[in-house]
Amino acid sequence: MIRKPHIFSGPSPWIAVVVAAEILGMAFSAAEPSGTIRLRDTATINAKSCVCLGDIAELSGTAEALSEISITSAPPAGRVKNISATMVSSRLRQSGVDLQDLVLDGADRVVLLGNANILALNRMAESLFDCLVSSMPWDPARTDIDIQPVQQSVYIPDGDISYEWQFPARWDFSGSATVRGTVLVNGRAEKQIPFRVTVIPHIQVAVASTDIPRGRQVSASDVTLQEIPLAERPADAITSPENVIGQVTRRTLLKGTVFTDRVLEFPKIIRKNQIVPVEIAEGGIYLQTKARALSDAKIGDRLLCANLSSQQQFEGIVQEDGRVIVSNP
Q1: HSE (CB half, 13 Å, CA atoms) of 132?
Q2: For 172-223, what is each residue's pLDDT tens digit?
Q3: Residue 101 DSSP one-character state
Q4: Which CATH class is domain 203-265?
Q5: CATH number listed for the domain at residues 268-328
Q6: Which CATH architecture has domain 35-115?
Q7: 114 CB neighbour count, 10 Å cutoff
Q8: What element of type H or E holds 191?
Q9: Domain ranges in the chain?
Q10: Distances (CA, A) of 263 to 53, 110, 169, 260, 290
Q11: How far from 126 is each of 129, 242, 323, CA to CA, in Å?
């Protein structure tokens, strides 16, 4: 008996396999990500206020359009800050990014380093010195200025650097004070640096060039000029030799003693019982006469005199030439 071959009336199993493979391929194709975000291990952040996605990750595909999304605040210059992958993904979702179409991989945590330069404190001190010289009332050639930074290492961002200085309100540019300087980078204030400043102005005063005994009249060879710190100057110090020469010492002066009004006096040009010329101006009447001095007197003193005839007493002012002037209003 002859058997007829069985003929399948339904679709071929090979066709079914091909169709299933195409369906699976379409499913896998639909699941492929449209972009990749690969976080770096570290990122150096230049001077800016925030860190964007493009600063901390390598982006490809549709993720490239997300580079300007803000992720976190930037670390200060010279400082380190960490940000986790979880925080990055949270920030992206808050910005409306659908992460289902993206792959987020790479480092679990990104270390952010604020890019910085070490501030040259010596250049800042030079700027402060120039500001002091232009602001203080003293002669720079006769002033000692010492400037010491309080801090040693200071980090600042890259950029154009300038300084602004603030002096203490009641400081008279003499002695010690703390002066604060603001460091500006590209016009933006970044740091405030304190400096300890000591300013010692000097002044010329007249001093004894040799030992001078009490009661001796000072001559030109007894006087010289010397610079001393302003803070050490006596309140009544004499600065000009011309104002010293011819005066008499009230006490013995050692070499180097500063001449003051307290240690000098004009010489006595009138002695007690000396007959002195007197000029009297009263009520438009001018008289010249003589009288007896009742005490010793020097230039400028108020001297008590007695009339030679009546012995009536009166006072007058001693002049440089020895005359006594009596003036009644």
Answers
A1: 34
A2: 999 999 999 999 988 999 889 999 999 999 999 999 999 999 999 999 999 9
A3: G
A4: alpha beta
A5: 2.30.30.760
A6: Sandwich (2.60)
A7: 21
A8: strand 188-208
A9: 35-115, 123-195, 203-265, 268-328
A10: 81, 78, 37, 6, 33
A11: 5, 40, 61
